[in-house]
Specification:
By secondary structure, the protein is mostly beta strands. It is built from 1 helix and 9 strands, in the order H-E-E-E-E-E-E-E-E-E. Helix content is 8%, strand content 74%. Strands 1, 2, 3, 4, 5, 6, 7, 8 and 9 form a 9-stranded antiparallel β-sheet that branches.
């Protein structure tokens, strides 16, 4: 099901972009910060563990520019993340995500564009913590629902700079924590939801 949704998003990205007057391709650096609550199914962990992550990501997004003012956005990110979880030292690892959204361009002049979009997205994190006696592996899949704002200043027909921010909340999703010791390997499932995410970003825009 997850693969089907990703393929559907990519197909919509190409089909919508093909009918746009122009597209803005944003290449950004971002620092996502988000929180959520984890509810483990095992009594080995307290209920409602608080989790906070700070990431350093590279983002790509494609935003359509239409004469009607309608705008579609597709984005993807990859980077490094550090997660703080109650009772653990920091877990670090890979951060991945995609988003898909629709909105409008209330400001669209020769030199400046301002876009707003509502979006949903999917994220995945694979984290590790190596301690003297236990190796922890933490995998998390999350679903995001939020909105973004993107401002672009255009230097020429083909190049500009941009700044923006995403705001979102986490919908119910799942994850797994593995604890690997010298004598045994345990897996613990959990559900996660809630919290908020803020993703400030800045970068270069190319127009096609």
């Amino acid at each position: 099901m997850r693969k089907f949704l990703i393929l559907a998003c990519i197909a919509m990205f190409f089909s919508v972009g093909a009918f746009a007057k122009e597209t803005a391709q944003n290449l950004d650096f971002s620092i996502p910060v988000d929180t959520r609550e984890l509810d483990f199914s095992s009594d080995d962990f307290p209920k409602d563990l608080n989790e906070k992550s700070t990431s350093f990501d590279f983002d790509y997004s494609m935003m359509t520019i239409n004469e009607s003012g309608f705008s579609f956005i597709f984005g993807a990110n990859v980077g490094y993340t550090s997660t703080k979880l109650d009772g653990f030292d920091d877990l670090t690892g890979l951060d991945l995500g995609i988003k898909l959204g629709w909105g409008g361009l209330p400001v669209n002049t020769n030199n400046f564009l301002l876009g707003f979009h509502g979006f949903f997205g999917f994220g995945f994190r694979s984290l590790k913590l190596n301690e003297s006696s236990v190796d922890y592996k933490f995998s998390l899949f999350n679903i995001k629902l939020g909105a973004d704002v993107v401002a672009i200043y255009r230097f020429s027909d083909n190049v500009g700079i941009n700044a923006g921010v995403d705001l979102f909340t986490n919908l119910p999703a799942v994850g797994t924590l593995y604890a690997d010791t010298s004598s045994d390997d345990h897996g613990y499932g959990f559900s996660c939801m809630g919290g908020i995410g803020v993703v400030p970003k800045v970068g270069v825009t190319l127009f096609f």
